[in-house]
Protein backbone atom coordinates (compact mmCIF):
# COMPACT_ATOMS: atom_id res chain seq x y z
CA UNK A 1 0.00 0.00 0.00
CA UNK A 2 1.52 3.35 -0.96
CA UNK A 3 2.36 5.75 1.82
CA UNK A 4 1.19 9.30 2.33
CA UNK A 5 2.67 11.73 -0.25
CA UNK A 6 5.71 13.61 1.03
CA UNK A 7 4.72 16.90 -0.63
CA UNK A 8 0.91 17.06 -0.91
CA UNK A 9 -0.14 19.60 -3.53
CA UNK A 10 -3.63 20.45 -2.26
CA UNK A 11 -3.66 19.78 1.48
CA UNK A 12 -3.19 22.71 3.84
CA UNK A 13 -3.65 25.36 1.15
CA UNK A 14 -6.42 27.83 0.47
CA UNK A 15 -8.66 27.16 -2.49
CA UNK A 16 -10.65 30.01 -4.00
CA UNK A 17 -14.40 29.48 -4.25
CA UNK A 18 -15.30 30.84 -7.63
CA UNK A 19 -18.49 32.88 -7.70
CA UNK A 20 -18.91 32.83 -3.94
CA UNK A 21 -18.29 36.52 -3.37
CA UNK A 22 -20.70 37.63 -6.07
CA UNK A 23 -23.53 35.20 -5.24
CA UNK A 24 -23.49 33.73 -1.77
CA UNK A 25 -22.00 36.62 0.17
CA UNK A 26 -24.27 39.21 -1.44
CA UNK A 27 -27.40 37.05 -1.11
CA UNK A 28 -27.93 36.90 -4.88
CA UNK A 29 -27.63 33.10 -5.08
CA UNK A 30 -30.90 31.39 -6.02
CA UNK A 31 -31.85 28.12 -4.39
CA UNK A 32 -34.83 25.86 -5.08
CA UNK A 33 -36.49 27.07 -1.87
CA UNK A 34 -36.42 30.62 -3.33
CA UNK A 35 -38.46 29.63 -6.38
CA UNK A 36 -42.23 29.48 -6.63
CA UNK A 37 -43.51 28.42 -10.04
CA UNK A 38 -46.99 29.49 -11.13
CA UNK A 39 -49.62 27.26 -9.53
CA UNK A 40 -47.23 26.04 -6.84
CA UNK A 41 -48.78 25.21 -3.46
CA UNK A 42 -47.04 24.83 -0.14
CA UNK A 43 -48.11 22.06 2.24
CA UNK A 44 -47.60 21.79 5.97
CA UNK A 45 -48.56 19.17 8.52
CA UNK A 46 -50.05 19.76 11.95
CA UNK A 47 -48.32 17.31 14.27
CA UNK A 48 -49.39 16.08 17.67
CA UNK A 49 -47.97 18.06 20.59
CA UNK A 50 -48.88 15.11 22.86
CA UNK A 51 -47.05 11.79 23.24
CA UNK A 52 -50.36 9.94 23.58
CA UNK A 53 -53.88 11.28 23.10
CA UNK A 54 -57.30 10.35 21.79
CA UNK A 55 -58.32 12.93 19.19
CA UNK A 56 -62.07 13.52 19.58
CA UNK A 57 -62.52 16.23 16.94
CA UNK A 58 -60.55 18.31 14.45
CA UNK A 59 -62.17 21.52 13.18
CA UNK A 60 -60.69 22.60 9.85
CA UNK A 61 -63.21 25.39 9.15
CA UNK A 62 -61.06 28.19 10.65
CA UNK A 63 -58.13 27.11 8.48
CA UNK A 64 -60.25 26.84 5.34
CA UNK A 65 -61.52 30.37 5.98
CA UNK A 66 -58.04 31.85 5.63
CA UNK A 67 -57.41 33.54 2.29
CA UNK A 68 -54.87 31.57 0.27
CA UNK A 69 -55.65 28.14 1.73
CA UNK A 70 -56.65 25.72 -1.01
CA UNK A 71 -57.12 22.49 0.98
CA UNK A 72 -57.14 21.08 4.51
CA UNK A 73 -57.46 17.44 5.51
CA UNK A 74 -57.49 15.33 8.68
CA UNK A 75 -55.05 12.42 8.96
CA UNK A 76 -57.75 10.01 10.20
CA UNK A 77 -61.46 10.22 10.87
CA UNK A 78 -62.00 11.15 14.53
CA UNK A 79 -61.95 9.63 17.00
CA UNK A 80 -58.43 8.33 16.57
CA UNK A 81 -55.39 7.87 18.77
CA UNK A 82 -52.00 9.50 18.36
CA UNK A 83 -49.27 7.24 19.69
CA UNK A 84 -46.24 9.51 19.69
CA UNK A 85 -45.21 13.16 19.81
CA UNK A 86 -45.17 14.51 16.26
CA UNK A 87 -47.65 12.08 14.72
CA UNK A 88 -49.66 13.64 11.88
CA UNK A 89 -53.05 15.09 12.85
CA UNK A 90 -53.97 17.31 9.87
CA UNK A 91 -52.46 18.99 6.83
CA UNK A 92 -53.03 22.18 4.83
CA UNK A 93 -52.07 23.40 1.37
CA UNK A 94 -51.83 27.08 0.51
CA UNK A 95 -50.27 29.76 -1.66
CA UNK A 96 -47.44 30.68 0.74
CA UNK A 97 -45.53 29.38 3.72
CA UNK A 98 -46.97 32.07 5.96
CA UNK A 99 -50.55 31.33 4.93
CA UNK A 100 -49.97 27.64 5.76
CA UNK A 101 -48.47 28.51 9.15
CA UNK A 102 -51.47 30.73 9.93
CA UNK A 103 -53.84 27.93 8.92
CA UNK A 104 -52.07 25.38 11.14
CA UNK A 105 -52.48 27.75 14.07
CA UNK A 106 -56.19 28.14 13.30
CA UNK A 107 -57.02 24.41 13.34
CA UNK A 108 -58.89 23.44 16.50
CA UNK A 109 -58.16 20.01 17.97
CA UNK A 110 -60.13 18.45 20.84
CA UNK A 111 -58.11 15.71 22.52
CA UNK A 112 -58.05 13.64 25.68
CA UNK A 113 -54.54 13.03 26.97
CA UNK A 114 -53.66 9.39 27.57
CA UNK A 115 -51.11 7.99 30.02
CA UNK A 116 -47.67 7.32 28.62
CA UNK A 117 -44.25 6.23 29.75
CA UNK A 118 -40.87 7.32 28.53
CA UNK A 119 -38.49 4.74 29.95
CA UNK A 120 -38.62 1.07 29.04
CA UNK A 121 -38.26 0.13 32.71
CA UNK A 122 -41.35 2.18 33.60
CA UNK A 123 -43.32 0.53 30.81
CA UNK A 124 -42.45 -2.93 32.15
CA UNK A 125 -43.64 -1.97 35.65
CA UNK A 126 -46.78 -0.07 34.62
CA UNK A 127 -50.03 -2.03 34.45
CA UNK A 128 -51.35 -2.33 30.89
CA UNK A 129 -54.30 0.01 30.37
CA UNK A 130 -57.28 -1.37 28.48
CA UNK A 131 -57.28 1.65 26.16
CA UNK A 132 -53.50 1.72 25.60
CA UNK A 133 -52.58 1.97 21.92
CA UNK A 134 -51.31 -1.20 20.30
CA UNK A 135 -47.99 -0.60 18.58
CA UNK A 136 -47.95 -3.85 16.65
CA UNK A 137 -50.32 -6.77 16.34
CA UNK A 138 -48.84 -10.08 17.48
CA UNK A 139 -47.57 -12.24 14.65
CA UNK A 140 -49.68 -15.29 13.91
CA UNK A 141 -48.02 -18.66 14.38
CA UNK A 142 -47.65 -20.63 11.14
Short description:
The protein has a domain at 41-115: Aldehyde Oxidoreductase, domain 3, CATH 3.90.1170. The chain contains four helices and six strands, in the order αββαβββαβα. The chain has helices spanning 20-23, 61-64, 97-106, 120-125, and strands at residues 42-47, 53-59, 69-74, 80-82, 88-94, 108-113.
Give the SSE map.
Layout: H1 20-23, E1 42-47, E2 53-59, H2 61-64, E3 69-74, E4 80-82, E5 88-94, H3 97-106, E6 108-113, H4 120-125
Antiparallel strand pairs: 1-5, 2-4, 2-6, 3-5
Can you offer a commentary on this structure?
17% of the residues lie in helices and 25% in strands. With 142 residues, the chain is α+β, with helices and mostly antiparallel strands. The protein has a domain at 41-115: Aldehyde Oxidoreductase, domain 3, CATH 3.90.1170.50. The protein has a three-stranded antiparallel sheet, covered by helices on one side. A three-stranded antiparallel sheet has the order 4-2-6. The radius of gyration is 25 Å and the shape is flat.
Number of helices: 4
Helix-strand sequence: HEEHEEEHEH
What is the SS-derived class? alpha+beta
Overall average residue pLDDT: 85
**Most strands sheet:** 3 strands, antiparallel
What's the CATH architecture of the domain at 41-115? Alpha-Beta Complex
CATH topology (level 3) name of the domain at 41-115: Aldehyde Oxidoreductase, domain 3
Tally the beta strands.
6
Radius of gyration: 25 Å
- So what's the overall shape? flat
Low-confidence stretches: none
Kindly report how far apart the N and C termini lie: 53 Å
Our estimate of the beta-strand percent is 15-25%
Helix content: 10-25%
* CATH hierarchy, class of the domain at 41-115: Alpha Beta
